[in-house]
Please model this.
Amino acid sequence: MTTVYEQRTGLTRREMLKRSGAAGATAMLVISGSAVIAANRAWGLEVTALKPETMATLIQMARDIYPHDHVPDKFYAIAMKGYDSEMAAKDAAKKDMIEAAIADLDARAGAGGYLGLGWEEDRIAVLKQIEGTDFFKMVRGGLVTGLYNQKELWPLFGYEGESFSKGGYIDRGFNDIEWL
Amino acid sequence: MAAPYDLNDDSVVVIIGSGAGGGTLGSALAQQGVDVVILEAGKRVEYDDFINDEWGSFGQLAWLDNRTTSGNWRVSQDFANLPAWIVKAVGGTTTHWAGASLRFQEHELKALTNYGPVEGANLLDWPLTLADLEPYYAKAEDNMGVTRTNGIPGLPASNNFKIFEAGAKALGYKDVHTGRMAINSEARDERSACQQTGFCFQGCKWGAKWSTLYVDIPKGEATGKLEVRSQSHVLKIEHNDAGKVTGVVYADKDGNQQVQKARIVCVAGNSFESPRMLLNSASAKFPDGLANSSGQVGKNYMRHMTGSVYAVFDKPVHFYRGTTMAGIIQDESRHDPSRGFVGGYELETLALGLPFMAAFLNPGGWGRSFTSALDGYDRMAGMWIVGEDMPQEKNAVTLHPDAKDQYGMPVPNVHFDDHPNDVAMRNHAYSQGMALYDAVGATQTYPTPPYPSTHNLGTNRMSEKPQDGVVNKWGQTHDIANLFVSDGSQFTTGAAENPTLTIVALALRQADHIASQMSKGEL
Model:
C-alpha cells in the first residue's frame, strides 16, 4: 500500500540526512528505507514495488514537466504515487517498464543521474530527448488530471471550485473587479 | 402522466435523441396531440444531480463511446478519440451548452450567392429564408427565455465581461453586450434566475439555463402523449419494400435489442450519430445507407471556426465566477471579404475552471511557458471565437472499417481539415482578441487552439435539389417521405452564430409541418 502521509514527528532533518541518502543534488527529497521523504519532513511516501529512488525521480520529473514554484512537492508526489500502487505493484511488466524508463533517463543525464542535475534547464534538456516516447506522454498526460484535478491544489491557484452549495457568486464577487 | 407506448404500436412518431432538436420536436408534437416516443441513448440525470466539478461532470454527462478521427485538425492529434464534447443524457447537449441564442443573418442563409464559389468549399444556399424562420425564432426565444428578447433584461456584467467590454470599446467595437442568453436573468417560466455559479457547462443546478431536460420534455410528458425512453441506443432504422421506414432497432438498458415500430422516424442524434445511423441502416434496397441517393450523408461536416484567447493581467479577475459565456462582440460577424476571408465571427466571453484550463489551454504543452499561464489563473480573462467555417465534402463522418462499438456496430470516424478560409478567419480573430486584451493592459495573451467540437453541423444537409443534399426545407429526407432529420446535421452552412436557437426554431417549424401533414393524411 502506497501512502502519502504528513511527517509530524520523528527524525530531525540532520538525523534523517545522516541515515539516508539525499535523493538529489537539491536534496528536496530524501530516501529512507522504502520511503521518499520531503527534506523538510512535511510528508513521506512509502513505495512497495518501485525503488524509492525511482519514485523520487518521477516526482522531480513531474515538477519539471509542470513547474509551479508555489506548489509543494506533496502534490506532485500524490500525482505520481499511482505509478507505484496502481501500476508497478499490480503488473510486473509495467514495473519493469517504469524502472527501465527511469534508468534510461538517468543514463542520459550522466554520472549523477537525473536527480544529480542541479538546474531545471539541464533536466529539461534530458526530458526533451524523451519527449516523443510513450513513457513521457503517459507521465505528462496523466499529470493533466493527476496534478490539476486535486481539489486541495486549487486554492493555490485561486480557484474556488464548487459554488452551488454557497449560492453561486451572485453575492460573492462575480462582478467585484475594481482596477479597470 | 408520461405515456408508455407498446413496441408494436406503429402509429407513433419515433424521435431519436432528446436534445435541442429531438426534445423540442417531441414536446411540440405531443402538445399538438401527436403520439411520440423519444429514444435517448443516455440516462436521465435530473438537474439537482448535476455536479459542480469539471471532470466529475464530464464523466456523468459526456458522450464517451468510442470515435476515431483523421485530418489535419489539431483535435485529431490531442483528443484522437474525442472529436466532440457533447452529451449522452436526456436533454442531450442542452444540459451542457453555454446558452448563447443568436439568430442567423439573412446573408448567411444564402452563402453561395453572397460569398460566391470558394475553392475547395461545397457552399450552397439554404432552401429557406430568414422570413421563413422568423416566426419560429420568435417562438423559440420565448420558449427558451432568451435575454434581450420578449422584454427579458440582459444578464449582469461579470468581471470577465467588464474586461472584455473595456477592451472592445478601446478597439472601437460598438455591438457589445452581455449576450442573448437562454439563461434567466430573472425568474421566469417557473425557473430560477441565474445565481452566477460558474458551472454552465456542467449542467445548471438551478435550472436557470434552458434545457429540454427540464423545460420542454416535462411539458410534453404532461400531455400524456410523450414517452421518453432513456438508455435506448438506436442501432438501425428499418424500412419496408415500398421504401418507407417502419421502425427502429435499439439496444435497451440491458443491452438487449428491441424494435420500436413507427409511423414516422425523426433522427436527432447530433451530427456524428445521425449520419452514422443512416449509414449503418444500409440494406439491399439502400446499399449506401438510408436517404443517401445524393451521396451526401455524413459529408460537409462543419464544426465552426473556433479558438480562444486567454489573457493574464497583473491584478485579480476571478473569471470563473459567474455565467460562463455572458458577453458578446458582434461587430466581426458581418461578411466583409476585405478582411481576407468570407463570412464572419463572433467573440464571446468564456471561462474554464482550473482542471479544464490545464487540459485545453495548450494540449500536449509542458514546461514553464505553460505553467506560467496557469500561475496567472486568478488574474486571467478569456473569450471564445465562433465563426462560419466552410463546408467541405471531404470533411466527413464515415463508418470505421474495423472498429466496432459495444453493440457490434461500426464506430464513426470523423475527418476534418481546416479550409484556408477557416485559418485566415481564425488568425484574424486571434489578432483582434489579443489586441483587445492588450488594450486593457494584459501582460500575456494566449491564442488557444479549438477544443473538441461542441457545434457539430452539416452531415445531413438541407438542399433545394435532391442531388445536393439529404433533406428538404422541412428536414424531410429527399428519398424517404416518413424519415426526417431534426438536429444540426441538417444545416446547409454554419453561419457565424451558435447553432442551438436555429436548431430549436427548425424543430418547432418541423413539428408544425409534420402535424399538419399527418392531419391531412399525407404522412
Observations:
- The radius of gyration of chain B is 22 Å.
- Chain B has twelve helices and 17 strands.
